[in-house]
C-alpha cells in the first residue's frame, strides 16, 4: 500500500482517465472520501492532498472524529452523511453535515426538514435508491423513487440535489453497471417530472473504489471512495 498522497494522485488519475474514455470533463466528477473507521490523522492527510468532501456512516463516529480533524486541518471541508440514519440521530448529525445522502423514507426527510428549518438553514439531501434489489441494501425501491423525490423536494429547509446508490455487491461489473444505469434513468425521470424542486436535482452519487469507472461512464457526478484511498479497513468491532 502506498501512502495517502500517492493513493490520492492515483485516484485523481483514475477519475480523469474514466472521464476521458467517455468524453466527460473531469471537473464534472467530485470525489468524496468515505472515512468510516479512519483515524483523524489519516483523514487530515487526505484533506491536505486536496479532498474537500468527507462521507460518514455513523453519527457517533462522526461526532468523535470531526472535531479532531478540524484541529488538525484548518482549511475548508464538508461532511456528508452516507450511512443508515435513524431519526433519533438527526439532531446529532445536523451539527456537522451540509448534506445527507441517505434519505430513503419520508419520516426521515420530515425530521431533517424540521431540524433544518428550525435553524433557518438549508440542508442538501440525496434520495438513496436500492438499485440492485438486494434485500440487505438500504434505499427506496426504484418504483418509489420519483414520488419520494417529489415529496422531499417539497419540504422546507431541504434542497434535493439528486440520487445516491450503492450499486450491486458483485465482482460482475455488468451487474454493477445495470445498477448505475438504472439510477441514471431514474434521475432523468426525476428532473423531468415537473414536480417542484426537482428540475435541478440531477446529481448522481454512485461508484466506489471497485466500480468508479463504470459509474462515471453511466453519469456519476460524485464517487465515494474509501479503500482506494486508505487501504483495506480494519474489521468493525
Ligand atoms: C464505505 C462506503 C463507500 C466506499 O467504499 P469503498 O469500497 O471502500 O470505496 C461508499 N459509499 C458508502 C455508502 C460506504 O459506506
Care to give the gist of this entry?
This protein has 237 residues and is α/β, with parallel strands linked by helices.
Give an overview of the whole structure.
The protein has one domain (4-221): Alanine racemase (TIM Barrel, Alpha-Beta Barrel), CATH 3.20.20. 41% of the residues lie in helices and 16% in strands. It contains nine helices and eight strands. An eight-stranded parallel β-sheet has the order 7-6-5-4-3-2-1-8. Helix 1 (4-21) crosses helix 2 and helix 6 (145-153) packs across helix 7 (173-191). The radius of gyration is 17 Å and the shape is globular. The two termini are 23 Å apart. The mean pLDDT is 96. Pyridoxal-5'-phosphate binds next to strand 8 and helix 9.
Helix and strand element order: HEHEHEHEHEHEHEHEH
| CATH class (first level) name | Alpha Beta
User: CATH superfamily, please?
Assistant: Alanine racemase
Q: What hetero molecules are in the model?
A: pyridoxal-5'-phosphate
Tell me the count of domains.
1
Give the CATH topology.
Answer: TIM Barrel
Terminal CA distance reads 23 Å
Number of strands: 8
Residues in β-strands, percent: 15-25%
- Mean pLDDT rating: 96
User: What would the principal axes of the Cα set say about the shape?
Assistant: globular
Query: Which CATH-level-2 architecture?
Result: Alpha-Beta Barrel
Spell out the blueprint of helices and strands.
Elements: H1 4-21, E1 30-34, H2 40-49, E2 53-56, H3 59-72, E3 78-81, H4 90-94, E4 99-103, H5 106-118, E5 123-128, H6 145-153, E6 158-164, H7 173-191, E7 203-205, H8 212-217, E8 222-225, H9 227-230
Parallel strand pairs: 1-2, 1-8, 2-3, 3-4, 4-5, 5-6, 6-7
Helix pairs in contact: 1-2, 2-3, 6-7
The protein binds pyridoxal-5'-phosphate (PLP).
Amino acid at each position: 500500500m502506498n501512502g495517502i498522497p500517492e493513493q490520492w494522485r492515483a485516484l485523481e488519475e483514475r477519475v480523469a482517465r474514466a472521464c476521458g474514455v467517455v468524453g466527460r470533463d473531469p471537473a464534472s466528477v467530485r470525489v468524496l472520501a468515505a472515512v468510516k473507521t479512519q483515524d483523524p490523522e489519516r483523514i487530515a492527510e487526505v484533506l491536505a492532498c486536496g479532498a474537500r468532501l468527507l462521507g460518514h456512516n455513523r453519527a457517533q463516529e462522526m461526532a468523535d472524529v470531526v472535531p479532531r480533524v478540524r484541529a488538525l486541518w484548518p482549511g475548508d471541508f464538508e461532511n456528508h452523511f452516507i450511512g443508515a440514519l435513524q431519526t433519533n440521530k438527526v439532531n446529532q448529525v445536523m451539527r456537522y453535515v451540509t448534506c445527507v445522502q441517505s434519505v430513503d423514507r419520508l419520516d426521515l426527510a420530515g425530521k431533517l426538514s424540521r431540524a433544518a428549518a428550525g435553524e433557518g438553514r438549508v440542508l442538501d439531501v440525496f434520495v438513496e435508491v436500492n438499485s440492485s434489489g438486494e434485500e440487505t441494501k438500504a434505499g427506496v425501491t426504484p418504483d418509489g423513487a420519483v414520488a419520494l423525490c417529489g415529496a422531499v423536494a417539497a419540504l422546507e429547509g431541504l434542497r434535493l440535489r439528486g440520487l445516491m446508490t450503492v450499486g450491486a455487491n458483485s465482482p460482475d461489473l455488468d451487474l454493477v453497471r445495470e445498477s448505475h444505469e438504472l439510477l441514471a434513468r431514474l434521475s432523468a425521470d426525476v428532473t423531468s417530472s415537473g414536480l417542484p424542486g426537482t428540475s435541478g436535482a440531477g446529481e448522481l452519487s454512485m461508484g466506489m473504489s471497485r466500480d468508479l469507472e463504470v459509474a462515471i461512464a453511466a453519469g456519476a457526478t460524485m464517487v465515494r471512495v474509501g479503500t482506494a484511498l486508505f487501504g483495506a479497513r480494519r474489521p468493525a468491532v
